[in-house]
Specification:
single chain, 351 residues, alpha/beta, six-stranded mixed beta sheet, five-stranded mixed beta sheet, 10 helices
Length: 351
């Protein structure tokens, strides 16, 4: 096990907030807490937090309900606010990279370097070619501060600001094990407004992308086409039993399929770009998660459109849990929406 105390994983999404806390147990992990809370539909729009008090209130409700004592947390950002670039540079020491990275930021990030926060990860070095591959990750400073402030308002202490696609990778490596030599594993999380995807080759990040499309598009189209409230449209989309036992209109299935096909085609274009830029022809394992894939029609269209061997991700697979608090059924109901939160909960405070 790595050193340092496990952090509280806090995934602040545009439709809900997910929270996860793990415990170290005999060289593995036990689920100490997993929970979610829906937030108002207009609280976070296109990654911008417009109603900070509502989001903080939902976080505080979860903390109180679960009697959470761990206040140090990890959060994630995604979407428009995040830029990830894979760069090949002349080989240099970590100290030299730290001194020269601002110049790289100015060359590759379309914002003033003073307006962004950024970090780098060295993916590998090639002494023979005197080169190194790095990931440059940057985000607008204001966007990062907004998410930190929401967590702080809820009484939390943010120790790590991660990227959603990296949290997904962390989850896959821990729960599913590292890939073999030459293997390619992909994971796609279709959220409410952002679809995060990452491809790993030989266990190293080969490609990441956030697509600003997700399950909200289905809800909005149902609402618009049927002239109903957003709450009714969300219930139709998820197949929830409605008050009075009202039937779900037939049009809902057609609308769901049309928008799901649009989402699937956007994902397919990104996978095609990954193939073109890496020379690969297939993905050995493609994990898919996110609440929208609970819909059987959406999952079917993804399988048909992508033509890949799709597996529904289960971040709780092989993890123990307190049977007095959770059941297999309760965990299954949360699994597809909890991949990012669990990936964040695997982070540690190493101070």
């Amino acid at each position: 096990m790595a050193k340092g105390k496990l952090l509280l994983g806090l995934d602040i999404g545009s439709s809900s907030v997910k929270m996860c806390l793990l415990k170290d147990v005999r060289n593995t992990y036990e689920i100490d807490l997993i929970d979610r809370e829906e937030i108002p539909s207009d609280a976070i729009v296109e990654g911008s937090i417009l109603d900070r008090s509502s989001v903080s209130r939902k976080i505080r409700a979860m903390l109180a309900r679960n009697k959470v004592r761990q206040k140090q947390c990890a959060i994630a950002i995604s979407g428009y606010s995040v830029i990830v670039k894979r760069l090949r540079l002349a080989n240099m020491s970590d100290e030299e990279l730290a001194m020269s990275i601002k110049w790289e930021v100015e060359q590759h990030i379309p914002y003033d370097s003073n307006e962004v926060v950024y970090d780098t990860v060295v993916l590998g070095r090639s002494p023979q070619q005197n080169s190194m591959d790095i990931l440059l990750v940057a985000s607008k400073r204001d966007a990062v501060n907004d998410y930190i402030s929401v967590a702080k308002d809820a009484g939390l202490d943010v120790k790590i600001v991660d990227v959603a696609s990296f949290a997904l990778q962390n989850m896959v490596e821990t729960v599913y094990g590292e890939a073999g030599i030459g293997d390619c594993t992909g994971v796609i999380n279709i959220g409410a407004s952002v679809t995060s995807m990452t491809m790993m080759t030989d266990g190293v990040t080969a490609f990441t992308r956030d697509i600003t499309i997700g399950g909200n598009q289905i809800t909005e189209e149902i609402q618009k086409k049927l002239g109903i409230t957003r709450e009714e449209a969300e219930n139709f989309k998820t197949g929830n039993v409605l008050e009075g036992g009202a039937m779900i209109p037939r049009e809902v299935e057609d609308i769901t399929c049309q928008v799901s096909e649009m989402i699937a085609n956007e994902i397919k274009r990104s996978i095609s770009f990954f193939y073109e830029t890496t020379g690969r022809e297939s993905i050995d394992r493609l994990l898919v998660c996110g609440g929208v894939v609970k819909n059987a029609s959406t999952l079917r269209i993804l399988e048909e459109t992508l033509g890949e061997n799709i597996v529904l991700a289960n971040p709780f697979m092989n993890l123990s849990y307190n049977t007095r608090l959770y059941s297999p059924e309760s965990l299954e109901s949360l699994a597809l929406e909890s991949a990012v939160a669990l990936g964040l909960a695997l982070r540690r405070n190493v101070e």
